[in-house]
Amino acid sequence: QVQLVESGGGLVQPGGSLRLSCAASGTFFSTYRMSWYRQAPGKERELVAYIRSGGSTYYADSVKGRFTISRDNAKKMIYLQMNTLKHEDTAVYYCKAEGVDYWGKGTLVTVSS
Questions:
Q1: Can you point out the beta strands (E) in 8-90?
Q2: Is 41 helix (H, G, I), strand (E, B) or coil?
Q3: pLDDT-based confidence at 26, cuts 50/70/90?
Q4: How far apart are alpha carbons 113 and 48 in whole angstroms?
Q5: Residue 4 contacts by C-beta under 8 Å, 6 or more apart in sequence?
Q6: Which of 24-33, 60-69, 87-96, 103-112 has the lowest mean pLDDT?
Q7: Mean pLDDT score across all residues of the chain
């Protein structure tokens, strides 16, 4: 079983940067495809990015070129580096182990001047 704790959210101005972290517990972490999702107010949760166990990545078109997902299997950590943030990036961000029916509490990112 995998449990996840997200951190690193906060208030940032448009054009700014934030780095989100996700600490995982449980065995076989390195075998999971790990994802970041987000849910903006009044909207459905959407996939932002994922990273496979081998390191290959996927990004939603809305964040491509601005966000970078990475993982440290030894530390059981997932990261999301977010640059050139926009108002529309405001959301609660969640990390997820694909195939595991578990959602953490998420971390709130607010992009506002």
A1: 10-12, 18-25, 34-39, 46-51, 57-59, 67-72, 77-82
A2: coil
A3: confident
A4: 23
A5: 22, 23, 24, 25, 94, 95, 96, 97, 102, 103, 104
A6: 24-33
A7: 95
